[in-house]
Design goal:
mainly beta; 418 residues; single chain; 34 strands; 5-stranded mixed beta sheet; 3 helices
Length: 418
Amino acid sequence: MKSAAASGLVLLALFVGFTTAKLYLTHQTAVREEQQSLSVMCKDKEKGSKVMWRGPKNRPLGDRTNPMSRVTMYGVQLIFTKIRKEDMGIYTCMSENESSEFELIVSPTVDFVDTPTEVNGTEGNDIFMRCEATNARTEWLIDGEFPSDALRYQEMADGLLIKNADASDSEHDYVCKAININAGTFATRAINLTVKHRPRLKYAKEDIVYGYIGGEVDLVCEVLAEPEPKFKWFHTSPGSLVAKQVKGTTSVAKVSILKIKLRNAADLGDYKCQVSNSEGTLDVIFTVLKGTAPNPPQILDLSEATESSLALMIEEPEVTEQENRTNMLPKGFKVEYRTFEEAKWNAKRFALAEDKIYLVGNLTKNTTYQVRAATENPAGFSEFSNITEFSTTSAACAPLTFFSCTSAVLLAIVSRLI
């Protein structure tokens, strides 16, 4: 009796072990949002038996159902191309004697609610950037990072509060990130912030500008302002108390340029750039004083030529006693150059260099250029020097020594003159 009972227990244990064995699944459970995709593989790794998938309510799945089941060399694949809410449930992979279950949980989709992409505010005030999302918690990124100043940038359940906003807050990139913790998914929304503020100078400027009678002076008034400002220019002549509005300016967006032709002493004096928008007005004063026109360069010569560049040796003019006394010293050069086929001059400006060498690059090989130069001092530019011709080298000349290439260039110039 005992032997028979023991044998029966062994057979029962083997039977239970056999029927409760599990098949291999790549997922036991998964949480996904609607419209996402998913693939789950099932395989009998021990016996290699044929397996099949059944959906909730024991519905058999095949290559024409949704979701579909497909036989591959690795096993039988359960495929969700676009998950639907009704796909949620328990799916069973079955062989002749074994089974294993996979549970799909469909999480609600993250949707932004009452979250504008454009936010406006005024400098000095607090600005609230609203961001709310269904089925998710939110967090903020400023220029790709979490806010570092918790006092100025306060994260709240329904948005971001910026305390005492200033114009620089408009320069940042703001992103509200909504995270569905259950599904492990997230969505982002970029929000553009515009802070209105009165005009202010974009760069520090020199209050005193020099010019010379017969020359020209450009006064540049560049500001930061929101909304876009309007410009007006006024001129007060020396000895006058009346400011007259000046016409003929060029204004683009937040920059206005007044070009003054100094015909006589009456064109000197104070010039006011008045910039205004809905948030306020800014007056920028330029005082134009009489300076001394510089002389052209003493020497303009070729130091070295390559296939694509000309290294020019330019000697500044001698400084007169008056120029030295009034600080009208040379500070650079403007070089203009063109080929014989070009009607317009190309220009490049240089600050004074100790070695007196100035490189003009991005040129065409084996080409002769007309070159001229003008000296720059605080009052403006001199007349141009006489036009000189210099040539870039050819590819064959490039490996040769400088002196050989220079000889070739000079020969080309002489040939043209002849």
